[in-house]
Amino acid sequence: MKFQKTSSRSLSFAILRGKIVPVLTLGASLSLAAIGHAFAQAATSPAGGLGAQMNLISSEAINSGSTAFGMACYLAATVCFGLGVWALWQSRQPQNRESGNVGKGIAGLVLCGLFATAGVWINKASVTASGGAASVNDTPAMVQFGAGG
Description:
Among the domains are: 32 residues; 63 residues. 70% of the residues lie in helices and 0% in strands. It has four helices and no strands. The N and C termini lie far apart (69 Å).
């Protein structure tokens, strides 16, 4: 077995060499982050730039999403109404005198009303959660609840 004689100086250099690369990498990334932040503050987006296009796409997604949600709620209201009326009608038939059909029918009609007015309930909830400062539009914006700071 052969032992290599190492001095304390070469040993300390090896330890330092193992730590210097992560330190330099961290320093370089922090300086690039600071430079990028400074450039981002001074940058202005052209009228047809990528930011404007993303804003338009998200506005269209908000519009189509709210339309799809409204349609889904009205379809659910229609299904609940139909099944609720059917359950009430079945509860009055002599061959279907089992318990629960009246409860199913009432639950279907209640759910029909909730689904039909879902947009109103969501709007009331947003006004309540934001302290009355809620606005519903198709422009994407930052949402802040409470007083903020």
